[in-house]
Specification:
The chain is of the alpha/beta class and 458 residues long. The chain has 15 helices and 21 strands. Bound molecules: zinc ion.
Length: 458
């Protein structure tokens, strides 16, 4: 299956550049992004002035890394509180703003607002085009978008990107699995987009319904994953079952969409090593830095992704700390010959406590605040897992204080109350149950309160 890999070049000018040509191009783009941002965005200008640096001082990539301050989500939130509603990073007159949205994660840290001009929207909607093309997905293909469309920006822009690329897209995210597969029998897919946990569930449902994708969906070419880790044996099993190649992808709401993707060589190599996702380095300046030393991660080393987007008009992004923990891979590690560096496929995780569940960003602190505020609750543990039917489950196991009321009806009422408060505050439905005495573990570090067992249960 992997003996011959057909190369599919989307943008010949940049994809066939030498590394040094690409570096010259991106340095020019970084310089002009820096100059424009400094001139037009009060938020970034102030931060650079505070750091005692102007664009003229930045003469090398090392200057950029060592002298231009990084920003994180909390900086953006603080600025937006101080200068409501959009903050002072906006670099165009209000009349040019065409689109605004909030980041996902209703609580725990707060939601940033992101604003776009028409050109930003176009850029964002075309950010997945090379990834689709590399996977052999072509305009006119039938696509299924499996992620529920809700309040967050990601699923909506992904759907619009597929449509913009010319895919005949069925948005089935709000349907039950069986109904989705019935649709797929009727309109056979060339491509679909989901997460690893849901792909496992869909596999289970296929087996229950007697669907063999190799027989029933013979034109299926690729399945797009993202934002969740997986192991190579699992990827092999899924590709064998579905008869299609897995694409792993990495996105950033702050930078407007697709940031990295595997190429036609996929998520793992013939010898079982993991593949890589390439950054479109003509569009973003992606740094992978060791958070302890601030130095660039070397080949196969872990680091945090820091993003600078070229040419964003409404809200420039300069050295944004994503909090995403990745493994750096240079372009030399991929057989495709593209000059783009990138990150390992299947291993993106977080430096902080944030968990992603059913497409929502969940901050455990938000659950802490609800559960531990209850006067009768002593402690709790959170568990994320995958049920036997493949459903993603979040379970909150609470221990009542010894002094709490002993009436079973009263306790059931408290659990129900917590369930609805958690759903309302985080947007994620959870099972809330009472633990037997001694069942809830206590930890010196509160981050340990939550255990994510989904990957081993895939
Ligand atoms: Zn490649």
């Amino acid at each position: 299956m992997r003996k011959h890999v057909e190369q599919r070049i989307f943008n010949p000018i940049v994809e066939r550049m030498s590394r040094s040509e690409l570096e010259a191009l991106r340095w020019r783009r970084l310089r002009s992004t820096l100059e424009r941002t400094y001139a037009a965005s009060p938020f970034y200008r102030k931060r650079m002035q505070r750091a005692g640096v102007t664009p003229d001082d930045i003469r090398t990539p090392e200057d950029f890394r060592n002298r231009v301050p990084m920003v994180d989500k909390l900086d953006v939130l603080a600025d937006q509180r101080e200068h409501p509603p959009l903050g002072s990073a906006i670099a165009v007159p209000d009349a040019l703003l065409e689109y605004c949205f909030l980041t996902s994660g209703t609580s725990g840290k707060g939601q940033e607002v992101h604003a776009y001009t028409g050109a930003d929207v176009t850029e964002s909607l075309t950010s997945w085009a090379s990834s689709l093309h590399w996977a052999g997905v072509m305009p006119g293909d039938v696509a299924y978008h499996m992620v529920p469309i809700g309040v967050t920006a990601g699923p909506v822009t992904l759907l619009a990107s597929f449509q913009r690329y010319g895919l005949r897209t069925f948005a089935v995210g709000n349907m039950e699995g069986e109904a989705r597969l019935e649709m797929m029998r009727r309109f056979p897919p060339n491509f679909f987009s989901t997460g690893p946990v849901y792909l496992r569930r869909l596999t289970t449902i296929c087996r229950e319904m007697g669907i063999d994708p190799r027989r029933d969906f013979p034109a299926l070419k690729a399945i797009k994953l993202g934002s969740f880790g997986f192991d190579v044996p699992w990827a092999r099993e899924m590709e064998a079952f579905w008869g299609a190649k897995l694409i792993d992808t990495y996105a950033s709401t702050q930078c407007g969409g697709g940031i990295a993707s595997t190429c036609e060589h996929g998520t793992y190599l013939a010898d079982g090593r993991r593949g890589m996702m390439h950054f479109p380095e003509h569009k973003v300046w992606a740094e992978v830095l060791n958070p302890q030393t601030g130095e660039p991660a070397r080949e196969d080393e872990e680091g945090e992704v820091i993003l600078t987007a070229f040419g964003r008009e409404a809200m420039p992004i300069l050295r944004f700390r994503t909090g995403d923990k990745v493994v750096f891979k240079s372009h030399r590690q991929c057989a495709c010959g593209r000059p783009f560096d990138g990150i390992e496929a299947g291993t993106v995780s977080r430096y902080d406590t944030m968990l992603k569940i059913r497409g929502m960003n969940l901050w455990p602190e938000a659950v802490d605040a609800i559960v531990l505020a209850h006067p009768e609750i002593d402690e709790y543990n959170g568990r994320l897992g995958v049920a036997d039917n493949g459903r993603e489950v979040a379970r909150v196991l609470v221990e009542f204080k010894a002094t709490a009321s002993s009436s079973a009806a009263h306790r059931a009422h408290v659990l129900e109350q917590l369930r609805s408060q958690i759903k309302e505050c985080t947007g994620v439905g959870m099972e809330v149950c009472e633990a037997a005495s001694g069942e809830v573990e206590r930890f010196a570090y509160k981050e340990k309160r939550w255990k994510d067992q989904r990957r081993e249960q895939l």
